[in-house]
Write a structure and sequence with these properties.
The protein has 274 residues and is of the alpha/beta class. The chain is built from 10 helices and 7 strands. Helices cover 46% and strands 16% of the residues. A 7-stranded parallel beta sheet has the order 3-2-1-4-5-6-7, with helices on both faces. Helix 4 links the parallel strand 4 and strand 5. Helix 3 packs parallel to helix 4, helix 4 runs antiparallel to helix 6 and helix 4 packs parallel to helix 7. Pfam families: adh_short, adh_short_C2.
């Protein structure tokens, strides 16, 4: 029996592309909040000969993530978790974005910490936005509350967001939440290594996904400033997931990997206003 790869946010975009890329090596369990989207994605994967199942899950709900992990364990040994579920600035309120992106990351990592087998890995999807906002904006000194009091952590994050004008709050919440994802892997690498699990984050730039389509007006300026002046293809980052999840990359943990077409390297920080 093949080992299991769990992909949150697997119903479309990068998550679905990752399922297609890793489907020759693993049983795939994709998750998302929309049942219809999951069903369509599973049918697509099965048509390609991939063993795949769907499981509805809101990652901001701890009990829902626990049920997901229980079901994944019933399928076999969980070797890889790709946590790609998330909301962009125009997909929800500032608090909803923080709950899905930041609290969801804590839920997925803490629950699967006890489920992923030795030599497995958890890959958390951040964003280049986590690198763009000035450090003074980030309430990073409060990030550690996420491991002791998740509701107080959420309150402190939203207190910082509330300092900005209403029209910018969703964007600020998104950037803080993605910066937190980067921090999480860095701060918990040693803990996960005690169980023989690698944990790290990938920060995508601008890729051709439904989420990017919704942000097209804002993102075009970044594309023009990138070293590679185009949107990334989801197949490109899916291949990165595959390579990094392989045991041959077994010395890699606790780090964030930018896959942004050279946007950060090209000096795009001045384009993001908060």
């Amino acid at each position: 029996m093949k080992e299991v790869c769990v992909i949150t946010g697997g119903g479309s975009g990068m998550g679905l592309a990752a399922a297609k890329e890793l489907g020759d090596e693993y049983q795939i369990l994709i998750t998302g909040r929309t049942i219809e989207k999951l069903q369509a994605a599973v049918e697509d994967l099965k048509m390609k000969g991939i063993e795949a199942e769907g499981f509805p899950c809101d990652v901001s709900d701890r009990r829902a993530v626990e049920k997901l992990a229980e079901y994944a364990s019933s399928m076999g040994n969980i070797k890889v978790v790709i946590h790609a579920a998330g909301l962009s600035p125009n997909m929800g309120s500032a608090e909803t974005i923080m709950r899905i992106n930041a609290v969801g990351t804590v839920n997925v990592n803490e629950v699967f910490y006890g489920k992923v087998i030795q030599n497995g890995c958890i890959i958390n999807v951040s964003s280049m936005s986590g690198h763009l906002v000035p450090k003074m904006v980030m309430p990073s000194k409060k990030y550690s509350l996420s491991t002791t009091n998740i509701e107080l952590f959420l309150k402190k994050m939203m207190n910082r967001v509330s300092l900005f004008p209403k029209k910018h709050q969703s964007g600020v919440s998104y950037s803080i939440s993605k910066n937190f994802v980067i921090w999480y892997a860095q701060m918990h690498a040693e803990k996960f290594a005690e169980r023989g699990i690698r944990v790290f984050s990938i920060s995508p730039g601008l890729f051709e996904t439904p989420m990017a389509d919704a942000e097209r007006e804002l993102s075009q300026g970044f594309v023009e400033k990138c070293a590679i002046k185009r949107y990334g293809r989801v197949e490109e980052i899916a291949y990165l997931f595959k390579v990094l999840s392989n045991e041959k990359a077994g010395y890699l943990t606790g780090i964030d990997i930018l896959c942004d077409g050279g946007c950060i390297a090209s000096g795009t920080k001045g384009l993001l206003k908060v």
